[in-house]
Design goal:
- The chain has helices at 3-32, 39-49, 54-77, 85-123, 126-132, 137-174, 180-190, 193-219, 225-257.
- By secondary structure, the chain is an all-alpha fold.
- It has one domain.
- The longest helix has 39 residues, at 85-123.
- It is elongated, with a radius of gyration of 21 Å.
Length: 259
């Protein structure tokens, strides 16, 4: 195949895949706001996505906060700015690291799990059975997972923010000889509601991305066990890339509107 033909084929494939993804997302969104809503399934997915993800998100947050404090101290000491450590830690965690790290953790744990679960249902024809029973898989399978991820990820991010700041506090007071009361006072005086709210908005968007990518690649899996594994891999990779891309867009938007 000539290089120009290869580029054209790749571009057409990308546009075709983008169109299929857009159509899928549109159907899921319509199903998510249409009745009947399976509230029991939404609650079950909230527990599965949110509660069971809490340990990994919490552990990641505390180590990120601790490492961030150490690095800021080392960098700040080069120009006598160590006193700004609590300010930068809380800003970095609430605005960027908290939402992004939690989103990536869910991309690895939840998106892959959703893709594997739905992919297995697809290759074993369980989704076809739902259609036979006049039960829409978009309402019964995909919409509850979308709602659950949108609801639980902001909660996880808020918890991660608190734990991450606490990790920075422990390192600063235990290793770097910061005054604990002064650290807390500077943190509370510097962080604003806009910092926290912006991070929670990002979390809701990332939650939608994680669930939609898992559902989409799971639904399109084929080829037995190898196809399910490939769908899980694609779900994680696409979720991570879209999280970084949407994070840039949201950060740009928040900067322009002063949030």
């Amino acid at each position: 195949m000539k290089p120009l033909q290869w580029v054209g084929a790749a571009l057409l494939g990308l546009l075709s895949e983008t169109g299929r993804l857009a159509a899928f997302i549109g159907r899921v969104k319509i199903s998510a706001v249409s009745f009947p809503l399976y509230f029991g399934e939404i609650v079950r997915q909230c527990i599965k996505i949110g509660y069971y993800s809490l340990p990994v998100v919490g552990l990641t947050a505390v180590f990120i906060g601790a490492a961030l404090a150490l690095n800021i101290y080392v960098g700040g000491s080069r120009f006598n700015a160590e006193q700004f450590l609590p300010n930068i830690v809380v800003l970095g965690i609430t605005r960027e690291l908290g939402p992004v790290i939690a989103g990536l953790m869910l991309a690895g744990r939840v998106s892959a799990g959703i893709a594997a679960e739905i992919g297995t249902m697809k290759v074993t024809e369980q989704i076809d059975a739902l259609d036979t029973l006049s039960t829409s898989p978009y309402r019964y399978l995909y919409a509850p997972r979308l709602w659950a991820a949108i609801i639980t990820l902001p909660i996880l991010v808020f918890v991660a923010d608190v734990i991450g700041v606490a990790g920075g506090y422990l390192v600063a007071t235990g290793t770097l000889d910061f005054n604990g009361d002064l650290y807390i006072r500077n943190t509370m005086n510097y962080v604003t509601g806009g910092d926290i709210f912006g991070g929670l908005i990002k979390a809701a968007v990332f939650g939608a991305i994680v669930s939609l990518m898992g559902c989409y690649h799971g639904q399109n899996s084929e080829g037995g066990a190898s196809g399910v594994g490939r769908a899980a891999t694609l779900a994680v990779v696409s979720s991570a890339v879209l999280i970084f891309f949407s994070n840039f867009l949201l950060t740009t938007l928040f900067t322009r509107i002063g949030l």
